[in-house]
Amino acid sequence: MRHGKKINHLGRKTAHRHSMLANMACSLVEHKRINTTVAKAKALKQFVEPLVTKSKEDTTHNRRLVFAKLRQKDAVAELFRTVAPKVGDRPGGYTRIIKLGNRLGDNADMAMIELVDFNELYNAGKATKKKSTRRSRRGSGSSAAAAPAAKAAPAKAEKEAKKEEE
């Protein structure tokens, strides 16, 4: 009976499987999306998501835990530097698996696994949050006077273009 044995061994020994998942996770962090088989994508999802959760809190302990799994310093730095701030408010589900069809050579089910917040096509409709910064009063006089003039210039150009068309 296989009670409680949920892990997919992917036809590999333990050390080979861990090395393969670590390499795939590093590639995913570096390129933000990779193509692989569906079974490997599902195994990679279970491998990567806890690492991304750990990266949301940048402590030395979490960096060491993630480095123990990934084993590449550049990938750990990329994960903590660029990926973690983008997924900071997301409670989970950092990756998306999209099925691509079958591979020509051996008819294996292929899939694309990607980091959710790095896909510009799906995030095009959502408004990006603008960071509010505190500004000093010294420089506000010149920028405040230039702002209305900059807004008025495109409006005048549009009106003139309409008159010329008529």
UniProtKB/TrEMBL annotation:
Any one GO cellular component localisation term in the record: ribosome
Give the matching SUPFAM superfamilies.
Prokaryotic ribosomal protein L17
Task: Tell me the superkingdom of the source.
Answer: Bacteria
Q: Where is this region: Disordered?
A: 126-166
> PROSITE patterns annotated for this entry?
RIBOSOMAL_L17
Keywords of the record, alphabetical order, are: Ribonucleoprotein, Ribosomal protein
Here the segments flagged for biased composition (Basic residues) are 127-138
NCBIfam families given for it?
Answer: L17
Complex formation: Part of the 50S ribosomal subunit. Contacts protein L32.
Its name, as the record gives it, is Large ribosomal subunit protein bL17
Q: Which gene encodes it?
A: rplQ
